[in-house]
Amino acid sequence: MREENHSYVWVARSLGLKRAHDARQAFLRALAKRGGPERDALRRRELQRLDELEARIRRRDESEPDKLAGRLVALDRLRQNFLNDDALVGALRLMEVSGQHKETVPSRR
Fold it and tell me: How many CB atoms are closer than 10 A to CB 92?
């Protein structure tokens, strides 16, 4: 679903999940289970989406520096999970510790 450029909100609604955050966590779990080249391609595409989102945020919020700064910090946190395998594994461990890890991972992308 993400490959079709659907938002996490859309994915969550389609899968019957309560929040976009849940859809994003499912995507991270699925990404962690993928092999090298496939994972790298998915990671590059997701980082490209985040770059596009950053450009939209900067244009939209340029007249509100405090709002812009807050959104860029949040965006950076999202981006960190995709930068390398260590960050991805760390995100998964954090989900497990916080009780957010679920074994069910949507197979559709």
Answer: 19
- Domains: count for the chain: 1
Domain that holds residue 49: 2-97
pTM, entire model: 0.71
- Is 85 within a domain? yes
Report if residue 61 sits inside a domain: yes
Determine the Cα angle at 91 with ends 76 and 32, to 5°: 110
List CB contacts of 43: < 8 A, sequence separation 6 or more: 31, 82
Span 25-42, pLDDT tens digits: 888 888 888 888 888 888
